[in-house]
Fold each of these.
Amino acid sequence: MNIQTYILFLIYHLKESLSLPQNGEIMNILLLIGGLLLILLGANGLTDGAASVAKSFRIPSIVIGLTIVAFGTSAPELTVSVASALKGSADIAIGNVVGSNVFNTLMIVGCTALVAPIVITRNTLKKEIPLCILSSIVLLICANDIFLNKATENILDRVDGLLLLCFFAIFMGYTFAIAFPTKPSGEQSIEPATTTREDEIKLLPWWKSTIYIIGGLAALIFGGQIFVNGATGIARNMGISESIIGLTLVAGGTSLPELATSIVAAIKKNPEIAIGNVIGSNLFNIFFVLGCSATITPLHLNGITNFDLFVLVGSSLLLWLLGLFFAKRTITRIEGGILVLAYIIYTVLLIRSV
């Protein structure tokens, strides 16, 4: 991944040589462009490497999407949320996760479907998407201390964090169970949806797949951080609150790896990785990212409201309903447009509420 390393070096070299103020608009624009380049290059390498691993070890692509790809592309959320929690910026930490999951479900799935319709397997529709709905409901309950416990403020404390981590352990157990099923060959737990596209996946040597995955993840992580730095700098110059920054710019920036990876996977005729990436990232964000953040330090919810949390639950329900009742478990381009429109409406309402 020498290209990504060179771009990263060039960006930081420009930052030192231009002698611009910390919040200079030119520097922020450079960070945005550099971050996008790293994200796109990383997504391409990660998708190729992950698909090759899936084919080599006969692991379903949905499992690769739920684990390696999802965890890797969620690394920016983990970094940003934990760092924000340690710095006392709970609104950014929580808003990042809530906003990222809404962005993942509505914008990423929607944009990916606009590029190529997404076929959802029966197992994903019956198990993985309901798990996303469950994770959103769990967060809604944990974040409503005022309503449920008559508390003075809503807090995600260490008990809530440990509870979320327990749910994450259950999710990991389920993922490995479907990766290595114990049922007879005639009773597969996952639809063999990838067999018809097997010839379209390029089989790489193991060392090259490893380099692609590690290099792709590194480019995605660094690219996401660089993009967020630029976007946050612009937002702060405009006087936008931390909760809005977390729900929109930071959330969208840290979700760019998922967007790039899902679109590239769809273009390369591997939609299982695309949908698995979104579902896995959403579960990872709530159960692991918020679980770790709240366990490290309690998170006080100030700017994050029940409106945002209900939108989070509703976005997962909308995805499930579209896959369940329309177009035979396929997210079509029309349905993708509906998801994108729903995200635009949510963003407009969010900005107008300021």
Note: The domain at 2-9+21-352 is CATH 1.20.1420.30 (A middle domain of Talin 1).
Amino acid sequence: MSLYSRSLRRLLDSWPGKQRFGVYRFLPLFFVLGAALEFSMINWTVGETNFYRTFKRRQAKNYVEEHSSQTNSA
């Protein structure tokens, strides 16, 4: 067992709620990390673009392509 895994095990064992919640005691941590990721995707921009602008642009492009292919086939 290496030093890294021993220190990781010590950190995980010191996390509160082990007897009552078991593995589920980490859920609040992952919830907060997920919320922070979502917040960063909404608010951080690189140049003039962020994740949601790119996603919306791609959705609009797919809609236009689908609509034009349906119009051309009819």
Note: DSSP finds four helices and no strands in the chain.
Amino acid sequence: MAGNPFKDQDNSDLFADDPFRDSSINSALQNGNSARHLIDDDSDAVPLHPVRRSEDEGGFFSGMGRVGFGSAYSPIGAGADAKDDGSDQTTRNAYSNNSKLADGDRSYLKPSGNYPADSREAELRQREEALEARERELLAREAHVQSMASGVRPALNFPPLYPVMYHSIDIEVPIGDRRTVRTIFYLWLALEALLVFNCVACLVVMISGGKDLSNTGATFGSSFVYLFTISAGSFFLWYRPVYNAYMKDSSMFFYLFFVFNGFHILFDAYMAVGVPSAGSAGMIIMLQSLSSGKKAAGVLCGISFSLWALHFLASLFMYRKVRKHYSARGHTFAEAKQQAYAGFAQSGAGQAAVSTAAGAYIRSNTGNF
């Protein structure tokens, strides 16, 4: 087979053998009227594309691999060069249909807009919808409670095993104060667990019976009593008052919390010290157990001492936080006394006392006449 007549003999000039550079054609192109006619009348013109050096060296069949069998013929280099230039939209579409994996073609990587949303965004959207639904539920429950008649409360729900009162931070406490009240409630629950652990540690100390330990029976007995007295007293004397204080924005309940929670903070410090016969497995009992060689009792007392110290610090922190809230709200001691007098007068005991005093006064004045 004869060589390719269109193949360049000298690679220095790609268009050295271009037949369109004939002198007759160049003279026709230099004619002004003919040039204008050729330039203006381009309805039947076929766009020419530059031939790549690699395809030029490979000959006519070098571009056959880029065109699928049965497809229309496209000029050599039309697919890639026209796509890069962006001037011939029709050629670019034809090329993309024939070869989706052509060099530089990344259309198959672009999302069409019909794919599902990213999994992380979908998860965040679901969480947001769940939180909004939860908030709507809480607002509805709060509105239901507020719409009830005065003096009417929902069903009792606390404590769980033997409910004697209604307790719901998410409904009765304002939204901005729920975190503070819930933290104090967790501190109260931690106190209950700490009292149980302290009682167990005192029991181990009593059973171990070290020579440097004395009155271990009294220590255990006191710790057992604390399980009931301190539990009930802490709930009704400082937790329930701070719950009512935030719920009703009452100065009187804030003062009750300040007084009795202050005693509770001192009680935490007292239990951390671990005075013998005082019902505490604190630092002193820990040292006595270790000096007697009772390692198990010493370890339990050391844990008890650490927990009492942590509870002391946490209670002190929350005490100061409630104090700042009290000052920011503008409550005063005079307001607390006024609320205490009004509450006592409205209570059954106050009304009975007023009735008794009024009857005694009337009888005394009647007897004078």
Note: DSSP finds 14 helices and no strands in the chain.
